[in-house]
Amino acid sequence: MLIAYDDAGREGWVEMARWWEYCPWEDFLKGRVARLLPGLKKERYSLRAGPSETSSQTSPLSGVEELRLIAVRDDWVLVITDSGQQGWFSWRDGDGRFQISVGEKINPQKH
């Protein structure tokens, strides 16, 4: 890894041991619970019929219910809400900012 180590812009290479394992977003998100982040634009609090901004809005979401993340397609997740509604939701915006707070994996015996 190349780092800048002082204010003069001097750089150097540092070898780092890889102590972590890469996990694609699809694998990380699928099977977890999440909540919407507060302060999103009003139109973001809706489920959609498909994984696209042009898909019709199907159900409004409250900021307090848990979302079970069932499937991931690019920036979209298929969710089931606490109330049993199902639809697609954009988990990150076009700039890569998260729109959800991700929690633990779902216990398959509970659902």
The largest sheet is: 5 strands, antiparallel
Going by CATH, the homologous superfamily would be: SH3 Domains
Strand order of the largest sheet: 8-7-6-3-9
Number of domains: 1
Q: What is the succession of H and E elements? A: EEHEEEEEEE
CATH architecture: Roll
Number of E-type strands: 9
Proportion of residues in helical segments:
under 10%
CATH topology: SH3 type barrels
How far the N terminus sits from the C terminus, by CA atoms, comes to 43 Å
Number of helices: 1
Tell me about this structure:
The protein is mainly beta and 111 residues long. It has one domain (23-105): SH3 Domains (SH3 type barrels, Roll), CATH 2.30.30. The chain has one helix and nine strands; from the N terminus they run ββαβββββββ. The protein has one helix at 25-29, and strands at residues 2-4, 11-13, 32-36, 46-48, 57-60, 67-73, 76-81, 86-90, 100-105. The strands form three sheets. Strands 8-7-6-3-9 form a five-stranded antiparallel β-sheet. The radius of gyration is 18 Å and the shape is elongated.
List keywords for this structure.
111 residues; mainly beta; SH3 type barrels; five-stranded antiparallel beta sheet; 9 strands; 5% helix
Kindly summarize this structure in a few lines.
The chain is mainly beta and 111 residues long. It has one helix at residues 25-29, and strands at 2-4, 11-13, 32-36, 46-48, 57-60, 67-73, 76-81, 86-90, 100-105. The model has no long low-confidence stretch (mean pLDDT 87).
